[in-house]
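Schema walk-through. Below, the input block comes first and the output block second. Nothing else is stored per chain. Lengths vary across the set, and this one has 529 residues.
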Amino acid sequence: MTNPIADIEKADVILITGSNITENHPVISTYVKRAVMFKGTRLIVADPRKIRIASLASSWLRPHPGTDVAWINGIMHVIIKEGLENKAFIETRCEDFESLKKSVETFTPETVEKITGIPAADIIDAARLYAKAKAASILYCMGITQHVSGTDNVKSLANLAMLCGHLGKEGAGVNPLRGQNNVQGACDMGGLPNVFSGYQAVSDPAQVKKMEDAWNVKGLSTTPGLTVTEMIPKAHSGEIKALYIVGENPLVSDADINHVTESFKHLEFMVVQDIFMTETANMADVVLPSLCFAEKDGTFTNTERKVQRVRKAVNGPGSARTDWEIVAAVSNLMGYPMNYTDSREIFDEIGTVTPSYAGISYDRLETEGLHWPCPTADHPGTKILHTGGFTRGKGKFHAIDFVPPAEATDKDYPLVLTTGRVLYHYHTGTMTRKSDGLNERAPECFVEISKKDAAAFGIGHGAKVGITSRRGHITASAVVSDKAVPGTVFIPFHYAEAAANLLTHAALDPVSKIPEFKVCAVSISAIVS
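--- output ---
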């Protein structure tokens, strides 16, 4: 996030898109609700489903799934046409504005309505509302990123924020809501194939030399590695012969699970390191039991870039170890010594090789967290990014055209499936589905369908139905709901016994390599008992 969570309540306007925030980020949603209900903040929600937060919105935009670039371009078209852009911010802080201006010329409200289904008048109203705000905050999540155009979607939101000068100040920003508790920290620590910690490029010889010196090694590769979604096909083809999976359950979470299963069968060796036996762990040759967050010391970095201490509260079960102890033991056996004594020693090393963490220490984190970048020991941390300038100097506008989803509906598969989460379960259910209370609240998989589609397909509320895509088939209970838009159905992906990702396809964003979980074509039919 460019801005801290508390800034949400300082916004004049909040735009939420691609996030069912009350169910997926219920704590952050309280900031939004307080801002709207008690502080006069205006809310714009862009989501194909009538999610709960839409009831508080001044403007609810209901786009067809996979058409985000079109409606964002449409909003920018209106802003530029009416002269509502922040000219001073653009002139002093940005570049390539003319290319953006030209790229959105054809995205008139009427054209956008034809692409997205959003009424032209709603596009105009939302554009004026966002542009005229003194400070406007954009909140987005995986409903924006999990598309073949996911990178373009994010760039488009950045374009919109720069166009109106809603960056580098309180109550503003472009703020991704991370999907898991330490996703930000994992990325910060180099959990990406193209960077070391602190987003230092592996392709940069100077960064490679720095890491070689710090780690006393030679010959580190300057070639970026593979993403998870690139590894799976290479396992299938035999190019990758072994996988070491830590804290992931791809046999529920990855797209096109049937293909993932076959790919794993082609491996010669698979290791899974996790806190519970998962569907993926059951296929592994070796399972390494690890400790959960409450059983170890360390740090997490949350969605607002705040680094916080985690302290051991209870002893772990059996022979389970911390993740770093397991990795260090494996490394020692493979010939590279990792002889750390505790997590504090590891964090001290992080600071020596990671400029954005250089000023953070366990002692400074004793009573409160710090936001990176925090380059020196006397630096207070950086709550708001881009206050005086951007990392690259001037912010770059990108001319982005609309690209339709990778898979279209037809007479055999007439409905669009989009997937997501529900309030009571988390991700693949590895933890939450072991809770009797949560299982009582959300016991089984369901498919959410509109009243119009339910009538057309002869489906009643609560009926067992079959859902089929070009890749797989599952059964679930039908939930006839006003949340659903005609032509689109929603299925949560938590339930291994009716895994939504048996249906999804593995078409990837060309840059981020994330699958298009949010759009695929399916058919639905009632099951006659």
